[in-house]
Amino acid sequence: MCCRTLLLTWAGVLGASAQNLPKDGPLTIRPMLQQLGERLLKGKTGSVVAINPANGEILCLATNSPQGSDVRQAIGRPQAPGSTFKTAQALTLLSEGVITPQTTVACVDGVTDGNIKVRCHKHPSPLALKEALAQSCNTWFLMTFASMINDDFMYESKDEAITTWRSYMQSMGLGGPMHIDIEGEQGGLLAGADYLNRRYKNGWDGKTIWWTGMGQGDVTCTPLQLCNLAVTIANRGWYYIPHIHQNTTNNRYLTKRQTKVKAEAYGTVIEGMRMAVEKGTATCIKTSYPICGKTGTIENPGADNSAFIGFAPKDNPKIAVSVYVDHGGFGADLAAPMAGLIIELYLKGKLSAASEARAKSISKRKIP
Ligand SMILES: [Zn+2]
Questions:
Q1: What pTM was estimated for this model as a whole?
Q2: What is the CA(86)–ligand 1 centre distance, in A?
Q3: In angstroms, what is the span from residue 126 Cα to ligand 1's centroid?
Q4: How far is the CA of 111 from the centre of ligand 1 (A)?
Q5: DSSP-based three-state secondary structure for 307
Q6: Is the pLDDT of residue 12 over 80?
Q7: Rounded CA gap, 73 and 64, in Å?
Q8: Confidence label for 83 from pLDDT (cuts 50, 70 and 90)
């Protein structure tokens, strides 16, 4: 399914949507994935992004909006990543030694701090890291992030703690444009010391910004950056800057970039992402492939946004995907099954009858 003949015909089959992608092809887009992504996004606002982890080639960049296909949905509109960001949190905290895979946090329906109550789903308690990822425990990630920022023994100041945290996130491609080869890219926000000192004039600590631990608040990124985050996890610590022009000779896109994350941190996070699909928040992906993933449900005025990042197969990964649907509800409702279909089509070359039926039903769903 990755053959060149498909690549060469992309412009012919993509039709109107191609107007949103660069025209100076040939592009790395796989038409069958692009078509499926666009089909699934019918009646919705959002994006489906897929990248080949081995070389950074963008395989799918499907978008939709009330005005039709709009590539800015994927590359130019940073939004809260929600719980998909818990993967990056876990990698950072493991690397810093703030947590270990065995660290447990108790959670019964959520956590309370003063007048603030953060809700969580029903799940066994306490949970260790893998289970916390699989169940997407909010308490686990708020508490551990706050404890990193407030760790006076490890860091000389809160500024030093947040600067250290930020350096990990930047190494994973977050916090600014990645300088992909498509116009209109914007990078998201990553809370830094200067920003926080300006924003919280009366001071701040780990609790002030603990929302960041669950991907809300002082962090935003584009679906493209989220897909690249999945790439870095699939590759256990490296990536190429995503690009859409085939056979590029620009060194920017041919240089392997390493994240700052410790190699041993990836195993635990990948196990947690596998567990999410097998028996956690993403069991809606009904597939026999060893997919690793993380759902995200982003609190939002009106209905929540639905997000998912993932990759497959678990070992020797061939594709990384991010799906973001405005007002799509739980990550498990829409984004996760959509990503599952994209992965199945890429790895198998076609959808099973049951998956085709699921694709049809998703494409019929309209979200105002
Ligand atoms: Zn919880």
A1: 0.94
A2: 13
A3: 8
A4: 8
A5: strand
A6: no
A7: 7
A8: very high
- Distance, CA 107 to ligand 1 centroid (Å)? 5
Tokens 């003949």 belong to 5
Q: Tell which wins on pLDDT, 289 or 201.
A: 201
Report the SS3 class of residue 281: coil
Task: Report how far ligand 1's centroid is from the alpha carbon of 224 (Å).
Answer: 28
Distance of CA 195 to the CA centre of its chain: 24
Q: How far is the CA of 67 from the centre of ligand 1 (A)?
A: 38
| Paired sense of beta strands 58-64 and 46-51, if any | antiparallel
Residue type, 38: E
Find the 129 Cα to ligand 1 centroid distance in Å.
11
Q: In the prediction, which pLDDT does 273 show?
A: 97
* Residue 360 to residue 353: CA distance in whole angstroms: 11
Instruction: Express each pLDDT in 281-302 by its tens digit.
Output: 888 887 677 899 999 988 877 7
Please tell me the distance from the alpha carbon of residue 239 to that of residue 235, in angstroms, as a whole number. Answer: 7
Instruction: Name residue 299's amino acid.
Output: E
Burial of residue 262 (CB within 10 Å: 0-12, 13-18, 19+) is middle
CA 124 to ligand 1 centroid distance, Å:
8
Q: What gap in Å lies between CA 132 and CA 309, rounded to an integer?
A: 16
Helix (H, G, I), strand (E, B) or coil at 352: coil
Q: How far is the CA of 236 from the centre of ligand 1 (A)?
A: 27
- Residue 212: how many other CB atoms lie within 10 Å: 25
What are the angstrom distances between the C-alpha of 347 and each of 33, 242, 343? 11, 20, 6
Sign of torsion over alpha carbons 345, 350, 353, 357: positive
Measured in Å, residue 138 CA sits from the centre of ligand 1 at 5
DSSP code, position 235: T
Helix or strand (DSSP H, E) at 142: helix 138-149
* CA of residue 143 to ligand 1 center, whole Å: 11
